[in-house]
Amino acid sequence: MAMTASLKSHVEQTPYDADPESGYASASSAEVVTSRDGLFSKQYLRFINRQLQLWEPQDILLWSMMSLPSLYQTTAFGLTGLVTVDIISRMPSPVKVDLIFLDTLHHFPETLALVERVRRKYPNVTVHVYKPQGCATADDFSAKHGERLWETNEERYDWWAKVEPANRAYADLHVKAVLTGRRRSQGGKRGDLNIIDVHDAGMIKVNPLANWTFKQVQQYVREHDVPYNDLLDRGYKSVGDWHSTQPVGEGEDERAGRWKGQEKTECGIHDPKSKYARFLREQEQKRKEEALQLGLQQEAILLA
Q1: How much is the pTM?
Q2: Do residues 135 and 164 lie in contact, with contact meaning Cβ atoms separated by under 8 Å?
């Protein structure tokens, strides 16, 4: 896939660090956000998002592959993520983007079958599969965390089924940036999505198809023979765990079938400020403070 005109024009222009409006590498600024690879000024994030907003997905992907270190794609093999996989497979770039799939142990059989079809269609793509820690099956998960945890403690379920495995994957693979399948037209909290976000923990998240509609994604899938989940032919549009996913009705938002009847719109992976995540961080901070206090007391005894 050749470099499109918008990217070629941009590459030939003045680099970011020569643009006084870019705020590039503005570590002296009071307005900075920490990424896993250093500092981005908030001004620079605003600047680059304004630029990328005008680009086609393949240009955003090529820029990400050339600019961001330790780049991976997180995916549950939704339609948008599959389009991203296909676009990258057609690029001449020597940079390889591996996939991270979080097997919650509660996916539909159709989703797991799709994973194997994707592996056959794109044999050069590596898929790293992460499951809940210490669990190989849904029965293992129930034995460890309780029956139907998604009903008894939803945030705890999200943490152990999705967030903890994601964090473990990021640590194991030294991930610094990820491609996601989020789009504005999916509704909910995604309506004002930027092309690039930097989350509290410093993870850079790139949303290359943020500007596309569901129809545009569908059209690409049809034109390029991209494999997709069979459930999409049965009224589903966004597919997650079997216990929290339903078909959507005519005129409903694309993600209306996820956690239907609830205010919830995100699973926790894209919501690092969940109550359970905050609780675990507070517990870890408390443990460190207690260990420090104990160490100071022991040192005082030795010096006495």
Answers
A1: 0.78
A2: no
